[in-house]
Specification:
single chain; 457 residues; mainly alpha; 18 helices; 85% helix; Polysacc_synth
């Protein structure tokens, strides 16, 4: 299958996956409320904070193992890939064990201080349900490594479609529990059952699709173990710096400008970033092919994939900026029922951040593709702290306008750090990116014009 067809299939699968995930987040809410009641459901959301946070990350080790596996397999070193798989499975299993022990200790401490006694949910049911749900979330740590099997076999679309089916099964199992009138323990058990059965199938199917393990039996390698652990810590920094940025700027606006300003700040930022989901889908479609070509040392093809990704995402962000500049505030006023007043200046500042975000966020995938997360992690930590400080200083001087400048400063600064560094990893300069990007655009425009002329003829 050609590269274009694989990217197209990845894109379709990514759209489907995003749709199912949005449905997963929204669909069950009315059923929770009608089956359990709003207050009981609110208590359940509070109790699931720990498993929800765990679900956001695989602690970085699964990602590190997966990227190492793809690069080794694509380069032809299949024995090392098998060793990475074996070692990665060991590390992930060890991390699941450690995380489960920490979770049990946390639950024990919460129970000791009678936290569960204050809940509307029966204490025993709450402890059992949360423990089961934590285990279900931890089992998902394996999925990153299993995804690497499909990416290495250049079947990324199949992987995304299977993960969409998994999300749909989770949704169906949860719905069945709620419709039948069962409680929190049964709901948690349904999630554990789905993840256990699916992960087993996902693992076996991935090994069959790849075919590597028919000829190569992996062994635990201490050097590989150290490398995965070191790189895993780098990937772990990504959610850390994002938390510093998003929660830090929100906290600063609250203490400097008050609660109403927080409502405006966060709602404007949320809506101004709504189109970013389109960029994420492009990135999901491009990343597997980019990484495989890098692993094969096909740098010319990899560079072209990166340039096309940048051209696509920036074009989308530019059109999105125009759309939001014209219609965004109108929609915002409808969305907030005219309860919050936002100036044109603040709105334009926030949506301008989308243009910069599109550039550095697309380039950020290179650090994962080459499995070198440390520099991006350092950039993120440093710039998020700078952004929070600027938000504090400028909020004092210029109010919400200053807070907007401080928030957008992260995207602006990261463009000047991430793009040169990402280009260097690709063996090119930012100037080459622009020049060849313009050439790519001309070729696309020329081909499009020829197709239009052919249709007219």
């Amino acid at each position: 299958m050609s590269l274009k067809k694989r990217v197209f299939k990845n894109g379709i699968a990514s759209i489907f996956q995003k749709g199912v995930r949005v449905l997963e987040q929204l669909f069950l809410v009315p059923f929770f409320i009608s089956s359990w009641g709003a207050a009981y459901y609110g208590e359940w959301l509070t109790l699931t904070i720990i498993p929800t946070v765990i679900g956001f990350s695989d602690l970085g080790f699964g990602t590190a193992a997966a990227n190492s596996f793809v690069l080794s397999y694509a380069s032809g070193d299949k024995q090392k890939a098998a060793n990475i798989s074996k070692t990665g499975m060991f590390i992930i299993t060890l991390m699941i064990g450690v995380a489960m022990l920490v979770s049990i200790l946390t639950i024990f401490v919460l129970n000791y201080f009678d936290v569960f006694e204050k809940s509307l949910i029966n204490k025993t049911d709450a402890i059992i349900a949360v423990s089961i749900l934590i285990l279900a979330r931890l089992l998902n740590f394996y999925s990153q490594l299993f995804q690497a099997y499909y990416r290495s076999a250049q079947k990324a679309a199949m992987s995304m479609n299977l993960l969409s089916i998994y999300a749909a099964l989770n949704l169906g199992a949860g719905l069945l529990v709620l419709v039948l009138g069962y409680g929190v323990v049964e709901f948690a058990l349904s999630q554990l059952l789905v993840v256990s059965v699916f992960n087993l199938y996902y693992w076996i199917k991935g090994k069959q699709v790849l075919g590597l393990f028919n000829d190569f039996s992996g062994t635990r390698d201490k050097l590989v173990q150290k490398e995965i652990t070191r790189k895993g810590l780098g990937y772990l920094m990504s959610p850390v710096w994002q938390a510093i940025y998003f929660q830090g700027t929100t906290f600063i606006v609250r203490i400097v400008l008050g609660p109403e300003a927080v409502a405006i700040f966060n709602t404007v930022r949320t809506l101004s970033r709504s189109l970013n989901q389109l960029f994420f889908m492009v990135k999901a479609a491009i990343f597997p092919e980019l990484q495989f070509e890098i692993g094969k040392q096909n740098w010319d093809t990899a560079k072209k994939i990166y340039r096309m990704a940048m051209l696509t995402v920036f074009s989308m962000s530019f059109l999105g900026f125009i759309f939001l500049a014209i219609f965004g505030l109108w929609f915002y006023n409808i969305w907030t029922q005219n309860e919050l007043e936002v100036s044109q200046t603040i709105w334009l500042l926030f949506i301008s951040g989308m243009l910069f975000n599109a550039l550095w966020w697309t380039t950020e995938m290179i650090f994962g593709a080459v499995n070198q997360p440390k520099k991006m992690a350092l950039y993120g930590i440093g710039v998020s702290i700078v952004s929070v400080l600027l938000t504090y200083i400028l909020s004092h001087q210029f109010g919400l306008t200053g807070a907007a400048i401080g928030a957008v400063s992260l995207d602006i600064i990261l463009v000047f750090l991430v793009i040169p560094s990402g280009c260097k990893l690709m063996g090119m300069s930012p100037k080459e990116l622009v020049v060849h990007g313009v050439d790519d655009f001309r070729v696309i425009f020329k081909n499009l014009r020829l197709k239009i002329n052919n249709l007219k003829a």
